[in-house]
């Protein structure tokens, strides 16, 4: 039976059993899609990264949630390269082939930095009442910042519906309707709803965020690198700061006891299309997993 080395790595944290757990299969060549889906379902992390040899970059990656493949995942990218660094990958810039293009990944002094795609941001023709109902929060929680920061679809490789709220208490009181969120994100072709406030737990933090993606099998994601990068570009696009800080710290996951921090560089997002997210990670489990045979091996022919 095929056995593959498989890890669980907590990303955007230096503390085990916090941040966002990702599965990592560092040598995935030869695995079929149904086998990868079965591994991701078994690990039950929000995403599992499968690393392959590549003709176009240093390596290729595919990401699977417990229910489906997704094109890009920030925390699983950070987790993967932290694991590779522990196996001897040197500091410096490395290239990663993904479903949305080839990205630069930098290892430096214990941090992993991921350069994301050039941002695409557009305001959405959706009512505040609709989004508030889906999030299970009073509409006034969303309208306090609407004069400067509209509801928008923002992507740096994976799209999110970005919804700013006024206070940390608004985030804590959310009682999301997962079916309504899934319908809303499907309508606007988004992976999830990313909602944030400038009201933070840590003085060093710029934002406190939550992210809901039930359509991808992730009711609430602990710490979301792709969404943090998209939100950083969104803040730069709409001039939330004057100027946009060179680095922003986003805290997330504390309402589900998986707190962690993403560092976002988006001060050149509007002018140069440059967005990077970075963070620490820690390996929490390292072992071998037995892999079932691919369903393709059981095809019946008449």
Q: Could you explain how this protein is built, in words?
A:
This protein is of the alpha+beta class. The protein has two domains: 126 residues, Roll (Diaminopimelate Epimerase, Chain A, domain 1), CATH 3.10.310; 154 residues, Diaminopimelate Epimerase, Chain A, domain 1, CATH 3.10.310.10. Helices cover 23% and strands 35% of the residues. It contains eight helices and 18 strands. It has an 18-stranded mixed sheet that branches. Strand 7 and strand 8 form a beta hairpin. Helix 3 packs across helix 6. The radius of gyration is 19 Å and the shape is globular. The C terminus is likely disordered.
What labels would you give this structure?
globular; Diaminopimelate Epimerase, Chain A, domain 1; 23% helix; 18-stranded mixed beta sheet; alpha+beta; 2 domains; 302 residues
Blueprint (SSEs and pairs):
Layout: E1 3-11, E2 20-25, H1 33-43, E3 47-52, E4 59-64, E5 69-70, H2 74-86, E6 92-98, E7 101-108, E8 111-116, E9 120-123, H3 128-135, H4 140-143, E10 152-155, E11 159-164, H5 168-172, H6 178-187, E12 192-197, E13 207-213, E14 218-221, H7 225-237, E15 248-252, E16 260-265, H8 269-272, E17 275-279, E18 281-290
Parallel strand pairs: 2-3, 4-6, 11-12, 13-15
Antiparallel strand pairs: 1-2, 1-18, 3-4, 4-5, 6-7, 7-8, 8-17, 9-10, 10-11, 12-13, 13-14, 15-16, 16-17
